[in-house]
Amino acid sequence: MNPNVSNIAMFPLNVFVFPGEEIPLRIFEPRYKQLINECRENLFPFAIPFINGSSISNYGSKVELLEVIAENSLGDMVIMIRGLSLFKVIEFTPQLPTKLYGGGIIETLTTDFTTTNSELAVLVKRLKLDLHKNLGTLVIDSSINMLDIGKALMLKPEERFKLITMKTNIDREHYLINQLRFVEFIRNQETKLENNFQLN
């Protein structure tokens, strides 16, 4: 059997968590309370297929439960999760037998999201993007993980989905270059406005 293919519980959401990223989630539906309680007890990960518009897409994030931050008397929770990997959905079942929540089969994406595009490296350095929590803007031999750039740019879920589902890394590079140029333009405009304000 393909080691990249696995059965897993699923929690469809309009969020796209990149590997290594940590985000909070609010849990209030009975089916997902059941899922999170089982994850807490058995320490297994779960999958978040991305809800694109009004439909569940074929791509998403495999995540792990880090902690339950808060829980009330009704069992509603605020939890912290961390991204483990990205996947493509092979099969989705809205409700698993004997469970309230759904699940299915996923295949882990093995796409290499690193790039040595020199223009990307220059823009990342010039904008001083915080790619690494401890090391800041770190570009080793001009090699960058494009997912790190996406996190640093705080791309919206739909933009992350677009980045992941592009056919080639060249397409992803062009997309991120345009995003970085836009950020640079906005920063330059803000600097001009600030300088004009100080002159007045």
3D architecture notes:
The longest helix has 31 residues. Strands 1, 2, 3, 4, 5 and 6 form a 6-stranded antiparallel β-sheet that branches. A two-stranded antiparallel sheet has the order 7-8. Strand 4 and strand 5 form a beta hairpin. The chain is globular, with a radius of gyration of 20 Å. By secondary structure, it is α+β, with helices and mostly antiparallel strands. Helices cover 35% and strands 32% of the residues.
> Helix/strand-derived class?
alpha+beta
Largest sheet descriptor? 6 strands, antiparallel
Write down how many β-strands occur, each being a DSSP E stretch of 2 or more residues.
Answer: 8
Percentage beta strand = 25-35%
Envelope shape: globular
Count of separate DSSP helical elements:
5
Per-chain topology:
Elements: E1 5-10, E2 22-27, H1 30-42, E3 46-52, E4 55-71, E5 77-93, E6 102-108, E7 114-115, H2 118-127, E8 144-145, H3 146-152, H4 157-165, H5 169-199
Would you summarize the structure shown here?
35% of the residues lie in helices and 32% in strands.
Question: Which short descriptors sum up this protein?
Answer:
single chain; 200 residues; alpha+beta; six-stranded antiparallel β-sheet; two-stranded antiparallel ribbon; 5 helices; 8 strands; 32% strand; globular
